[in-house]
Amino acid sequence: MNATYISYYILLLTICVIGVARYKKLTTPFKLLTVLIGLTLVLEITSEVCAVLYKNNIFVSYVTCLVEYTFYSLVYYNLFINKSIKKSILITLVFFALFYFINFFWLQPYYKEFPSNVVIVSEITYTIFSLLLFKQMLLYPLPMNITRQSVFWYNTAMLFFSTTSFLNLGLINYYVKHHLKDSVLLGFNFGINVIFYVLIGVSILINNKKTITDNV
Amino acid sequence: MYDESIRLLVLSTIAFFACLSGFIVYFVVLYRNKQFINKQEQEKLQSAFRQELLQAQIEVQEQTLVHISREIHDNITQVLSFVKLSLAMIANADDDQKQTKINESRELVAQVITDLRDLSKSLSFEHIINLGLFKTIGLEVKKINKTGIIKAKLLTEGEKYSLGEQRELVLFRIFQEALNNTLKHSGAKHFKISLQYNSEMFNLTLEDDGAGFSPNSLINSSGSGLKNIENRATLIGAVATIDGSPGKGCCINVTLNPFQQRLYPNGTTDPDRFS
To answer: In the A/B pair of chains, how many CB contacts fall below 8 A?
Structure first.
């Protein structure tokens, strides 16, 4: 386990501790987000352990995808006010579960292939959700500085991560095709993750249900 | 090879992040503009609400003064004049008649005192605040029935709760406006007032069995009392629907969510947004 991983786990742990310390002050979506960060930390460590012990952590990746999609969907479900969007989120959750199991057993079997199909579908959905949430923010602006709104930081993190994932996947394909050195890509990946979790951390840190400006 | 991978990564990353940052900056600028427009609209709304409230208070006072002057002229002055005449006639009456006249005069003076006490209660719009909407309307109904011009009936449903001083004042003005319209223009014999207090909705219904009106007349008459009712309802976050057709009377319904729009008149944000 190198320093990069350790610093990544420390970052996740720090955000988780902040979330737990402020748990009572958080609104429902940010409580869910805190739980998700805790689960992510556990799954990341499990994944690392599996990689070392069994040289295969695809199954853990599958579990991570399902957990993340479920939680992020629920977070968005709580953030949206439009009833039809809320309903759509629940419907997409059902379709996602269906697609997930098809992929799990047939398209990219859990014992040999990384669930890139599931990741792509998830990231597309997150991008749509984040754009819709930005639209909602524009429709109902709050009388407070935008930088002090937890929803803004959370949504920026989601848009950043989900759109960067496409760039990331594109670069991975290019690097593999042209046999380029992947250490640069790993560093890039690490950077994206750090920025994403720092933004999530900021959103958890400033979220407060007593403030009327926190959207839920 | 390594340099090439670095260059590729840097270029694509810069291009990508430039787009993403551009989007976020654009969003923030748009958001701030929206906040500014919203703030302006809210201030405008607050100012309009304050003006309307002041107007409603003045109108209630005017109505009260008209009512007091009419009461003094038609009732108190008449009764006291009768008492004066009655007492003047005592000098020529025998003992039995004297006692009868004194008793009559005493009863009449007692009646005048009661009437004056009732009048003092309605000297300002503050009695709406003290008594609440239901009781204030109840008093008005009693007054109307006493005149015999029209038969008014007050009905209530559900457990009563306060809607807030300002909103109750505006609702009372709506009631007065409707009553005035009925008395002046409809020729109705009956006037029914219903107050429905549900947990999520308050309803004020004012119905008469008068001449009614053509729906077109409501659209064309911008300054009419019925238009005023609609405008006032909007200002307190309520919705007023006015139904009527020639010969079938008029029905005014004011619906208001007591909890959803409680903050609205104070100019704070609409709490429904993120429920």
So the answer is: 62
